[in-house]
Amino acid sequence: MRKGLCSRSSRKKRNSRVQSVCKVFAYAALGALLVYLSGCAAPQPHLMATPVVFKDGRLDFIPHLPPPLRTTRLPVFYATTRAPVRGADVLSYSNSPGKELRLGVAEIRLGAPGWTFDELMASDWTSDVSRPRPGAVERLEELGTVPRETATSGPEQALIQRIDAQLATLRNPTGRRSAS
Known about the structure:
Elements: H1 2-40, E1 73-87, E2 90-110, H2 117-126, E3 135-146, H3 154-168
Antiparallel strand pairs: 1-2, 2-3
């Protein structure tokens, strides 16, 4: 009888310890999995915080911006020597240097998907380093590579034409336009 009481009590203690150890291992495994997965997650793209000079209420640059450019989607013209990476019909660039100078246009979204221009402008007052605004490169269009010759190449000319077309949408206070 004594043996039965001891073994039942021992079993309960042993089961309790086994359950405690199993819980600790389960939590440790879950924690390790979360750390592993967070290490694999890509960082969320965001915009830099609004420079302090733009938070000065006496400065209002918006009236100088033509209405067609009051948008959350803008072209950004680029030249890069980074190596291209193509995957699933999506172009991006690695951090590794490439062998050629590549020219292109990136379509950039400023703010969260669905934001209006007014919401983007309102975020200027609240954004800071601890609360960055969202933004993303939505599409890259590579115009081509620049050959190592002195004449202006097709991709260079295409980039120049696209920049000139964008500049033509801006007001020029002197009334002069750049020559193409």
